[in-house]
Amino acid sequence: MMLCFNRLIILFCLIFIGLNTSYSQCDTLRIISNIDISGNYKTKRSVILRELTFSVGDTLSLSILSEKMAQSQKNLMNISLFNFVEINKDTDTLQSTRILIKVTERWYIWPIPIFDFADRNFNVWWKTRDFSRLNYGVDLTMYNFRGRNQTLQIIASYGYDERFGLAYQIPAMNKKQTIGVGFGLFYQRSHELAINAKSNKELFFKSESEYPDKQLSFYSEILYRPDIHNHHLFQIGFQNRTVSDSVRLLNPDYFDGFRQNTAPLITLYYKYKHDYRDYRPYPLSGTYWDIEFLQTGIHVEKDDGLAILMGKATYRKYLKLSTKWYFAAGISGMVLSQKRYPWFLENGLGYKRDYVRGYEYYLIKGNAYGLIRTNLKYNLLSTKLIRAPYVQSEKFNPVPVALYITAFADAGYVSDSYLKDDNELSNKWLSGFGIGLDWVTYYDKVIRFEFSVNRKAESGIFIHFMSSL
Fold first, then answer.
1. Residue 469 lies in a domain
2. Three-class HEC string of 172-213
3. Bigger pLDDT: 71 vs 420
4. How many C-beta atoms lie closer than 10 Å to residue 172's C-beta?
5. pLDDT tens digits, residue range 418-463?
6. How many CA atoms lie within 13 A of 199 on its CB side?
7. Per-residue pLDDT at 10
8. Could you tell me if 157 and 164 are in contact, meaning their C-beta atoms sit under 8 angstroms apart?
9. 132 vs 158: CA distance, rounded Å
């Protein structure tokens, strides 16, 4: 009898423990009852909700909810509409919770004076300090136009390059906010242009009496964003470029494939991005990769015209090693569909972000290239909010500032079988390494100061205005 009683006691305890465990598990679940948003004086509520990884009615454990809140905060920062984003939860009952989102909007209308360099980068311009090679004017950009994350841009630039243009992008048109459209129209003319290269340095032609280079271009695009991390861009464009007789005489290959001095071209472009970075302007953790294709020209008549397909791919990985240490590595490559190409096409290393550090002064053209970059970073100063005196607007105050010490090493290779006689750095491995200081602040601004040494044993201090990876 006593044995049966003991067994009943044990069974009762087990049932009680089981019920109590079940209750505890249920207690960790929360139904999202409401999402309260404040600070969005201009931004539509739907734009913010689009970036969240949760919605009203979801039932989530507290741990998963915290993860989704952290990811949603990153997503909202990455659309570049806010200086600061705070997401917190406020428990209503044991079963439900409210989400509180507070955003600090940026200043969205920027009539920015244009004062930039006609050269490929600041370092190339600084070598000559030729003020005639500067562009000046106004770039009026309205971000978050109509509060729907749309962008309207009007450009009027004079100086070395005269450029006028209008661009408009609507990233979300349908109810699900997955499909967007855009267009752009630009006209540019210049008294001087790069027409060739010798020893991997650009050679320029200048005419005071005429504009040896004129360009008219138009594009329209469709954007497809099925979810937060994946983006598709489809673009069709037309460009008509005209150069003077002097340009064709000095470099017959400038418009290789065209009998006339005018190159009317239809372009087709596609790009896919897979983006899991924590903060896109200056990522410290996550993964990114993309693939893109550009078809330049379509043959209209035999032996007249241009039809070249370009394929390019990029992969980058960002790792947090410890509280202060970070590592990043990236690899990218490009290939053209044919070995022979007109000189005016921008392909090879030395354009935009595609260069081996230490070779900023060089242009290495080719029909294919590969590039590897590595960064090791130490967080010298974690993001600190500095309040500027006499500035009352929360759109500009406080100012976030972060500093990173970097050590880096790059390697690259350009394959070229066409311009190799004047392209001595092609068809051989290039390498560079050095140290630097990265300054990161608000409005997605990054300034890098780097000391680099290349394989030719050349060294120098270089300044860049975007993240290296």
1. no
2. CCCCCCCEEEEEEEEEEEECEEEEEEECCEEEEEECCCCCCE
3. 71
4. 20
5. 766 678 899 999 999 999 999 998 778 899 999 999 999 999 999 9
6. 1
7. 46
8. yes
9. 11
Q: Which domain holds residue 415?
A: 109-464
The predicted model gives 158-182 an average pLDDT of 89
Secondary structure of residue 25 in the 3-state scheme:
helix
Give a yes or no: residue 350 inside a domain: yes
The residue out of 70, 103, 136 marking a domain boundary is: 103
d(CA 149, CA 169): 9
Residue 296 maps to which CATH number? Answer: 2.40.160.50
Beta strands (DSSP E) in 344-444 are: 368-386, 399-415, 429-441
Q: Alpha carbon 54 to chain centroid distance?
A: 26
For 23, list phi and psi in degrees, rounded to 5.
-65, -40
Indicate whether 140 and 69 sit together in one domain: no
Question: What gap in Å lies between CA 111 and CA 199, rounded to an integer?
Answer: 40
d(CA 356, CA 376): 16
Q: Spell out where 228-285 has E strands.
A: 230-243, 262-275
- Is residue 70 located within the same domain as residue 133? no
Reference 442, options 392, 390, 397; nearest CA is 397
Burial class of residue 310, CB neighbours in 10 A (0-12, 13-18, 19+): buried
What is the pairing mode between strands 399-415 and 445-454? unpaired
- Dist CA 127 CA 276 (whole Å): 38
Q: Are residues 321 and 392 in the same domain?
A: yes
Q: Counting every residue, how long is the chain? A: 469
Alpha-carbon gap, residue 241 to 250, rounded angstroms: 17
Q: Are 423 and 197 in contact (CB under 8 A)?
A: yes
Residues 418 and 365: their CA atoms lie apart, in Å, by 9
Q: Rounded to an integer, what distance in angstroms lies between the CA atom of residue 419 and that of residue 426?
A: 9
Please write the tens of the pLDDT for every residue from 6-23. 454 444 444 444 444 443
Q: How confident is the model at residue 34 (pLDDT cuts 50, 70, 90)?
A: very high
Is residue 465 predicted with pLDDT exceeding 60?
yes
pLDDT at 73: 94
Tens of pLDDT along 188-233?
A: 998 888 888 888 888 888 887 788 999 999 999 999 999 999 999 9
- Token pair, residue 299, equals 């043959």
Domain boundary among 69, 103, 137: 103
Residue 132 has pLDDT above 70, yes or no: no
47 and 180 fall within a common domain:
no
Give the end-to-end CA distance of the chain in Å, rounded to a whole number.
76
